[in-house]
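User: Sequence in, structure out. Go.
Assistant: Echoing your sequence, followed by the structure tokens.
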Amino acid sequence: MRAESLVKEVMARFTKGRYQTREILPLKKSKETNKIQVKEFINEIVILARLNHENVVKLLGCCLETPVPILVYEFITRGTLFHRIHGDGRQKFVLSWEDRLRIAAETAGALAYLHSAGDPPIIHGDVKSMNILLDDKFTAKVSDFGASRLVPLNQMQLSTLVQGTFGYIDPEYMQTRQLSDKSDVYSFGAVLVELLTGKKIYSDDRPEERKNMAKYFVLSMKQNRLFDVLEDEVMHGGNHTQLQGVANLAEQCLRLNGEERPTMREVAVEVRLLTRTWSW
């Protein structure tokens, strides 16, 4: 396998490589060689080796004996959901409401699989639009399991150092350092807000009350101003039942008390039902 190009990603670097079959593959390389980074890579291998789901990125191989650890993944051609929503600095992409809703359903299904089908269950720990990849058909692939945790069957929560991305991190987790499946639910709620509003989940460039879009979205819902914050593409592409249904679901996921949030399985069922509601 030989390196051909280096593409910047958030937590690591992906290099396109080729096997003798000429199939393009991304290589995830640590930015630096340290014990913490290597531990995260090994953790990702352990997690991904347990998974087999159409909406979870596939790990094809790894090499930890090189100076810089390398993980080899299936090549996902359309990049991240983050860039499809917000653009890549050079162009603004159009992502239809139908695609957004389907991506939400696929992502929810993958997270429900992690929480309920694993033995033991798995908490992703860093759900965000940057960690949702899209293939040729815009099928969602949940990725980056460096912060993920296996949950012993007799435990509901895990005590950890707080990891994640600001704006997506469960506030309850930040306060207690107790990571649970409901932490992923909160983060998924933030992704729903991105899909609905087309806004980055956090930005210092916005007025104070709008810097954290998840909080502003919940406030807008309480003030019955949902349709003031929706992106035009979403407003024109979705029907009232769908938009209100997804918005209500996002609000439930973003509740500050984790016990009041739905499970990912409940979320997945609800989003899947909403994908079937196209009449006005």
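User: And one key feature?
Assistant: Residues 29 and 70 are 5 Å apart (CA to CA).
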